[in-house]
Every structure is written in C-alpha cells, then in structure tokens.
Amino acid sequence: MSDRGILSSLRYLFADFIGEEDDSPPFLPEGLPEAVTPVASDAIHLLIEYQGTAYAKLYIDRLRRFVGKQGVDDAMLAEIARLMAMRMSYEDPIRIAQLKLAEFNELSGGNYNPVVDIRKFRVDELVSALPAIIAEYLIDALDWAGWAHKQVSIRFSAASRVGVRRLKIEAGLKRWRRYSVRYAKERLWVERWLHMIDRSLTKQPAAATEIVQTATMIQGYGDVYRQGLADWNAIIDGLAKPTFDGALALSDIGGAVKEARSAAQPDPRQAALKRKIAEIRSLVPAGGSSAAAG
C-alpha cells in the first residue's frame, strides 16, 4: 500500500477522534443521489444522537468513498448507507438506556405505561463498554477468576424517578464509548466490511451486493452478536478474502457467500458453516488462481 493509501486509511480510521469540538452537523456528500438522501439524512440524525457530530462526520466520510464509484448504483449505495448506520449505532447497554429514556421523554406526557426491560449480558460484555485502559485489566482479571462469561441481568426502567435517573446516568456514559474496547472493535469491523465491498467492486463487481448484505449477519448483543460476528469472519476469511487475494479460484464469490450464509446456524462450534465452507472450497480446482483476482 502506498504512503497516500496508508494515510487515507488512518484518516478514516481515526476521523471520529478529530474535530470533536465542532458541533455543526455534517453536510451530505456532493453528488449523493436523490434516492439515497433520506437514508443518509436519517443516519446523520441517528448518529449525532448516538455519539455526536464527529461520529456522524465519520459516517459521511465513509459513505463519500462510494458516491459516484463505478459499479455502485443508487440501490447499492442506499444499502451501504443504511447498513453502515445500523452497525455504527450498535446495541450496547448505553444505547439501550438511550432508547428507553427517549421513549420515556416522548410518551411520558400521555398514557405512558413503563415496562421494566431486563436484559442479560456477559460480564466481559459490560466491561468492554468501559474505556480500554481500564477494561483490558478488568477482562484479564475476570478471565483469571473464571467470571468473564458469567451472565448478569440489567434492568432498564423508567417506572420510577430512581429508574429514570439511572437511565440518564447510563445514557450519559456515551461520552466514554469511543474509548471503549467494543467501540474499537466495531470501528475496525466497519472498515473491514467497507474494504471487502471495495475489493469486490474491483475483483468481482457482480458479488458486491452480496458482500454489502453480509452486514445483516451481525446484530444485537450477547450470544446473538458474538455468533454473527464469528460467522461473518469465517465466511470472509474462508471464501471472500482468499478469492480477492487470488488464492482461491471462485468465479462466483457472491453465490458462494450466499450459500455459506444459508448454512450458518446458532452453533458456537459453527459445525454446519465450516462444513459448507470446506465443501465450497473443495469444488475449486487445486492450484488455480482466481481469474478475477488480477
């Protein structure tokens, strides 16, 4: 990678740490198709609420990379815009508190009947929402004690003044989110997803839509989130990346990814998925390199 490419990657990767003092909302990218404008506009409002204006600007910087790009039509760009906003507003305890508080603020003037929302998190998942400088030591200690995977129930409730006050405190922790372990992992994941879309557009343009849709594999929190992330990595590392690298001669990576996704099950061992990936790879001629890898 050239020096310019390295600098560009670093700028995108750390853009959310730059210009935090500027509270002016970002502008939509120049040349953004009219059909994509509502999606991107909604995403800006969502991400400002979720984390702040610098975070919304990072979203726009990322989206701008695909505006006017060869092979990206309005429908694909809209999906990139929608799914990127979804992943950048990932669900953590802070987000759940934000949503519960917003619901209370919106409906408390009417016939609001607050429901106690109880969510279960693993201890290491809660700790990963803390600043990395603290979380990394705590996670090591929890692993040593055998408590990292212990399930903890957290109440999110606006049924009392104490509950509302607690939600405000939890939602206010968003200022620390960008220094957390989870935030760093999500930032890297989004960049890798976008990179894989970029590579597909270069190597196998017909597969790009399927690569875009892989973002839907990763949702929520807890076991569902971890399973989806593990399955996504297995498919990308086992099929997409080696094909784009020219190490695997898959002529239809889009079809292969779709087939592998259909085999994924809620199984931590990933038995069915691994069998499917191995099966797909076994059908590729040995020693060949992908014709699309040039």
The proportion of residues in beta strands is under 5%
Record the strand order, biggest sheet: 1-2
Instruction: List the helices and strands in order.
Output: HHHHHEHHEHHHHHHH
Distance between the termini: 16 Å
**Residue share in helices?**
55-70%
Q: Judging from the principal axes of the Cα atoms, what is the shape? A: globular
**Whole-number mean pLDDT:** 88
State the helix count: 14
Category by helix and strand content: mainly alpha
Q: Low-confidence runs (pLDDT<50, min 5 residues)?
A: 1-10, 15-21, 290-294
**Radius of gyration based on Cα positions:** 21 Å
Q: What is the strand tally?
A: 2
Count structural domains: 3
Largest sheet descriptor: 2 strands, antiparallel
Describe the model.
The protein has three domains: 1-89, no CATH class; 93-177, no CATH class; 181-294, no CATH class. It has 14 helices and two strands. Strands 1-2 form a two-stranded antiparallel sheet. It is mainly alpha-helical.
Keywords:
two-stranded antiparallel ribbon, globular, 294 residues, mainly alpha
Brief overview:
The chain is built from 14 helices and 2 strands. With 294 residues, it is mainly alpha-helical. α12 (222-245) runs antiparallel to α13 and α13 (253-263) runs antiparallel to α14 (271-282).
Which secondary structure elements does this structure contain, and how are they paired or packed?
Elements: H1 3-14, H2 37-50, H3 53-64, H4 74-88, H5 93-107, E1 117-122, H6 123-127, H7 132-145, E2 151-156, H8 161-172, H9 174-177, H10 181-203, H11 208-213, H12 222-245, H13 253-263, H14 271-282
Antiparallel strand pairs: 1-2
Helix pairs in contact: 2-3, 2-4, 5-8, 10-12, 12-13, 12-14, 13-14
